[in-house]
Amino acid sequence: MSKPYVSLFVYGESIEHDPTGKPKIVGPMHLFTPQFIPSMYSFAVVFGLMNVPTDTEFTVRYKFISPDKSQTLIDTKDIKVNIKKDPNLSPELQGFIAALDFRNTALPQNGTYLSQVLVNGECIGEFPIIVKGREQK
Hints:
Blueprint: E1 5-17, E2 23-29, E3 31-32, E4 39-50, E5 57-65, E6 72-75, E7 79-82, E8 95-107, E9 111-119, E10 122-131
Parallel strand pairs: 3-10
Antiparallel strand pairs: 1-2, 1-4, 4-8, 5-6, 5-7, 5-9, 9-10
């Protein structure tokens, strides 16, 4: 089996769920613009994983890292996942969507922050986002 990969990654203001439980990203964002830096900031991420193991446990982890890489500001640690195989899909199409909502996350400085998605301890995707305080030049 080839490696899992990130098929989708979106930053947004928050997550809502429709009546069937499907996540909806509210206010997709391409940069964060809090009023001031340093700041506490709330945001959400949605990511899709494909080609994941089925009918066996594996781990998924999300990290949000400061621009100078000195601080991991969010770390979900390993989340155990077990996906039931969909018999109508080939192995490379097996996957799922993760929706994570973070409230009051510290943003210590302006710059390019980095999200990392890890499966079984291996980083399979990195996704930068620029943070720029509105009151700074």
